[in-house]
Amino acid sequence: MKNQRISSELISENNEAALKHLQEDYDHLSTVLSRQNIDIEAVTTQAQAFEIAVPSWGVGTGGTRFARFPGIGEPRNVFEKLEDCAVINQLSQCTGSVSPHFPWDKVDDFTELKAFSDSYGLQWDSINSNTFQDQADQALSYKYGSLTNTDAATREQAIAHNLECIEWGKQLGSNRLTVWVGDGSNHPGQQHFQHSFERYLDSMKTIYSAIPDDWELHIEHKMFEPAFYSTVVQDWGSNILAAMELGDKAKSLVDLGHHAPNVNIEMIVSRLIQFKKLGGFHFNDSKYGDDDLDSGSIHPYQQFLIFNELVDAEARGQEGFNPSYMLDQSHNVTDPIESLINSAIEVQRSYIKALIVDRAALSDCQERNDALMASNTLKQAFNLDVSPILAMARYRQGGAINPLQTYRQSQYRAQVAEVRPSVAGSGSGIV
Amino acid sequence: MKNQRISSELISENNEAALKHLQEDYDHLSTVLSRQNIDIEAVTTQAQAFEIAVPSWGVGTGGTRFARFPGIGEPRNVFEKLEDCAVINQLSQCTGSVSPHFPWDKVDDFTELKAFSDSYGLQWDSINSNTFQDQADQALSYKYGSLTNTDAATREQAIAHNLECIEWGKQLGSNRLTVWVGDGSNHPGQQHFQHSFERYLDSMKTIYSAIPDDWELHIEHKMFEPAFYSTVVQDWGSNILAAMELGDKAKSLVDLGHHAPNVNIEMIVSRLIQFKKLGGFHFNDSKYGDDDLDSGSIHPYQQFLIFNELVDAEARGQEGFNPSYMLDQSHNVTDPIESLINSAIEVQRSYIKALIVDRAALSDCQERNDALMASNTLKQAFNLDVSPILAMARYRQGGAINPLQTYRQSQYRAQVAEVRPSVAGSGSGIV
Amino acid sequence: MKNQRISSELISENNEAALKHLQEDYDHLSTVLSRQNIDIEAVTTQAQAFEIAVPSWGVGTGGTRFARFPGIGEPRNVFEKLEDCAVINQLSQCTGSVSPHFPWDKVDDFTELKAFSDSYGLQWDSINSNTFQDQADQALSYKYGSLTNTDAATREQAIAHNLECIEWGKQLGSNRLTVWVGDGSNHPGQQHFQHSFERYLDSMKTIYSAIPDDWELHIEHKMFEPAFYSTVVQDWGSNILAAMELGDKAKSLVDLGHHAPNVNIEMIVSRLIQFKKLGGFHFNDSKYGDDDLDSGSIHPYQQFLIFNELVDAEARGQEGFNPSYMLDQSHNVTDPIESLINSAIEVQRSYIKALIVDRAALSDCQERNDALMASNTLKQAFNLDVSPILAMARYRQGGAINPLQTYRQSQYRAQVAEVRPSVAGSGSGIV
Amino acid sequence: MKNQRISSELISENNEAALKHLQEDYDHLSTVLSRQNIDIEAVTTQAQAFEIAVPSWGVGTGGTRFARFPGIGEPRNVFEKLEDCAVINQLSQCTGSVSPHFPWDKVDDFTELKAFSDSYGLQWDSINSNTFQDQADQALSYKYGSLTNTDAATREQAIAHNLECIEWGKQLGSNRLTVWVGDGSNHPGQQHFQHSFERYLDSMKTIYSAIPDDWELHIEHKMFEPAFYSTVVQDWGSNILAAMELGDKAKSLVDLGHHAPNVNIEMIVSRLIQFKKLGGFHFNDSKYGDDDLDSGSIHPYQQFLIFNELVDAEARGQEGFNPSYMLDQSHNVTDPIESLINSAIEVQRSYIKALIVDRAALSDCQERNDALMASNTLKQAFNLDVSPILAMARYRQGGAINPLQTYRQSQYRAQVAEVRPSVAGSGSGIV
């Protein structure tokens, strides 16, 4: 029996009150979908199966280089982060795994940590190593790079950290390592582009050789920040070349906020699928840079178009297609639990909308170059309000029909604030 | 007699060694300029008169939301910052004033602070208020805005801080207040755009009413960060409208990193000049966002084109034209003193190049629509290496011909590191 | 009795077949809206009242500088363009006016033209002048500018054209002139920014003085293209300053594709509303530059957020608020009639969604800084599928429930192709 | 003895008048460089060896989708284009080859064309195929794509054109084919990204198989335009993957205007060098999109940084490094001959500045992470005015010290205008 942070009575009460309208809406949606020969139950089953991981650092209030404005009841360590993640999954029923970040989430006894996460029914998603900050006990600084540092000893220190991450991940039952580095330069000439990338590839080869056979190594690219003139893995081009150099277990990870302005991200997703190198996603949204806003809050249609590629690849049985999904957001002005619940559902929403795209009609339009009807075929699915499917999927699994309403009624935040005193420099890093 | 942080003997020695080559180059440049009927001495005199302020916070190592990697010997308070600023001015001879940031630079006794800056021959440039961070002793939080907060008491607290900044500025002999706020939103719908801007204007009117008659109030716009969906003064359009609403003492300040991608900043400068609202600049450079890189390190030609507008306005005797110049950079991977010396000279370089543009020829090309020759007229000035003029201007005022070389030989950083122990959370904010 | 291009029998037949499902969906939507105390009939009435103009040049196939690929049956003159516009309005019932472009649409007898448009029940929207191309019979070239040309005679020629546009507009019953110029520069230095803008303002003052008292003069800004270094009215800042200089009848027009990357257009709309200078819109969509894609096809949420501002201003009874709407798109790969029908409905869709936003709840969230619920309040309206309201509004006015399906069945394009032979250089300009 | 379009007496006269000042400046520059142990004569020799091709279509006035404003004396066919190219090379002495564009430059007798180009001492650079326009005699339209068209016959037609380009190229003595296609989509859903790229690769494999062993096949990517939602080879990532699929003779070509905003192009150049896939360049400059402005007119420092990568690769003896250079610009407001002369020299300027970078010092700074001095090492070379080297290189080869001045004095444009009457639709396409 799983531990539960929110009273199941409260959830049931709220659900009871909402069920009548939900059932009405669900029934009508069933009618609408049946006109397109879509069985709503099949879609709801897929909604129930949808999973997106939550990052452990996401449950703390984020910040910018200018300031961080923490909320109350912030988690102070990985155990309290797991408690918050359990709330998110209990209400949303689609975030059953947590992605840890080391050394932030390092503990003395990983068996204890695993038992704790098990008690909440949470799995461990991809392990994130951190060589973009200096830790208090660290011998050599990453000020001028980690895996690409011109100093061999510094590179080895960074490699060693990734190796220990793999070991900790094994203890937690994870099967992936995600490597994002802040390495780059702020001045033209500061780094030799080619030598720097060669050092990166060398370091990554050592890490790759420690990756277990049933794991994947995910490479994350980013255009800029924290480096502001060049970043070593700046785009999907450098990313896929690195993944190809390393081998089959290496794949590319797409963070939606890590691209140049105007870039067609859904097309990049297609290319990575085609070349069997799409590892997974860090979902978030952005208007300007790597804003790390809530998924789907700015460009919901773009998110849908990305899922259109994913569902299409699945439908085509594209070889080697098995991406993993994670949220990676910075919650600066909201309760992180609320944002993560809401964002997980927004990603799920895009998935469900992509599922009901009439692929035969779309394919026919593409073949005939009927551009407008192709566009409208996508829009028809996007315009449909699939909220009843999402709510029903939650309800049937014991989650909340109206998760934010239920969360607020639970007074969870106020309750944890009583046992989690505010401290300057909380357990969550400013990312 | 001014205090001096760097031994004048060292400066002299180095200058002696460099003078022969400098004189050769200066003489040849004189010949080249005389072919265009330009008297090099007149230009050198203008180079000597050029001044650009240094921000007090610029002498600390900057950082990003991901990390800050401090150097050794970081200044711990405004007095030590002034010491470093004195070094910059002693070697560059063009940074005779310092722009303070409150409450970071707040002291109990401003008379003492003024006497200290006087001892180094430093003036106080524009005062910067800070309502984008919460201070330890602050009653109300700026998490959801300061001058635009929906809560009247919070707005009043922010206004009051600006009023005290004016008072402190008077004591320091400043004559300007620069207001930049981080107010904005991260979610569509979070703020009512119009009501928010109305509250901003109301708050600013109160501040404006306290601005002495011989002061200016500078408004700084920024596209994004720390707010990632909307910022209350997001561009020069909102900026100039606010300045027009407030009155003659209110002007717009241009930070080069605060614009949308691809925007023609020199044209914005021209518009502000035309409408008599150009207050001044925060100089820096950037490739992606508000990167706060060293001035001229990425887009030196853009910097020159901006000065082309400034020198043109000066030459035309444009009414109300009197902008102030300041550096505003984040030095994450360099010694801040080195970057500030170098950047001040890079801005000065653009100014000097703009001075030697053949304006009669340019004007003639413009009249005849001779686009290529107009472009080449600018390029001819830009291509000329005016380093000898810059070096001679420094030399004649007691500065260093090769300021970075002299600074490094002085061992200044190592010396201050002995008396300034490294502390977590230094006196410099992460901006 | 209006002329009709599409058989009303065909429309009726198709509508009959679609009505049952529409009624089911409409009834369910009525139920959903009634839970929010919204009367669907009131919304449908507003949908019926919604109008957006069609540009005469939009019914020809567009192109790029690289090529134009015309379709069959392209209209060869303004009369045939009106025929196509009549089809669009007959099926969509929301495009009752046409915006002409002179001299493209110039005729010898405007009375005849007016009678022709009257026969189809079409009104004449804003007049567009053209000084960005040289016409065959033109004395002086606009190669180096029109209203800003350094040559006074060329400026006068451009002014005279605008004056004749006003006269023609009077004869057609229009009440607006929209001025967009391609004036600008391709080289730094080519133009003196300030003198160029001064010439622009001078020219516009002469035009403004000819604007009838019950007309408006709309100024259109654009970041770039056809000029690639600077454009004289490059953004809303220059636009509103020009409008303020000219007077109350001058207002700013927003084309969605004319902004820098990442710019928050809905915020610009709010600013123009606040300062009583929002004249109207050219709707289209874009991913990269001024792509002139079909409205809502790329960023439907942004279009909704813009209408959120418009509906809010209307609801607040904002003084001086009365913007006009027009489509301005380039249909390079679709049948222009289809794209314009579809796009008009997509804009109408955003309007209807904005109407059902719970403004009291939104305002409350804004007051309490409940960022997530504010965002969700908007999203709730956006997520709702209002297609039944749009279809019912068309149906009740005699339009088509499924306008594209009906259009295709009508074989209109093939029919006009028989009487409109393909000619190189059709009556539609390449825009 | 080569034919010459400009009187060599005029060139000599002008050079005589300019030589004294040039020699003074050259001598002083020699002194300055010798302090850095650089022999100016070695650099001048490399300047003399520098070559950049001119595109045949570049000598006609360009335009935009809005308008084209032709000048007088426009070339009407490839022979007249060659005459203009001969002028450019005669004066600049660095543009000894011409890149043709088929079918625009197609002739009945290629032997005659070759003899004509030989008479001016001009070589034939890379062949450009054109499948982005429909030609009058063309069976199938490229409206919906060429090499990626869903219709096999259309793809075959496009392939066949590339094959005939290769044959024509052989007759002209060329050894490269450059393939740029406008294929893409304007609507989400219009094309299946993966299937479209698969068709592209299939078509290219057929073309590749016809590439002679001593030729290269260059692939050109472009972010957008003429397609505005997606382009089949949208960035260097897709480009290099295609080149890798095809084989060793296939390489990637970089056009400076074909990237997303803010992208670090010099880093892309480095990556292509590292992976042995840098084929060559289309040089131009831009501020917003693919503006095709004169090389170095907007971002001269970026151009220098690109050459810094090229010279570094050459210095390192990087395997497989042998890129070709070409100008690809659209001259809308200048005399194309003037712009091409000027631009060729601006590219040469960047090359020469990159040659005098102190690579040992730079490498040392990189090793020690001395970011500021690394940046300054580049800046020192960039700031130096190398105009005397460029002028001397021209002078020594019989070119003009002041090529634009000499060109204007020659009255060439007025002379050809007499024999080349203005015609609507000149021989130069609107690109």
From TrEMBL, chains A, B, C, D:
Keywords: Isomerase, Manganese, Metal-binding. GO terms for molecular function: isomerase activity; metal ion binding. Residues 102-292 form the Xylose isomerase-like TIM barrel domain. InterPro entries: L-rhamnose_isomerase (IPR050337), L_rhamnose_iso (IPR013451), Xyl_isomerase-like_sf (IPR036237), Xyl_isomerase-like_TIM-brl (IPR013022). This is L-rhamnose catabolism isomerase.
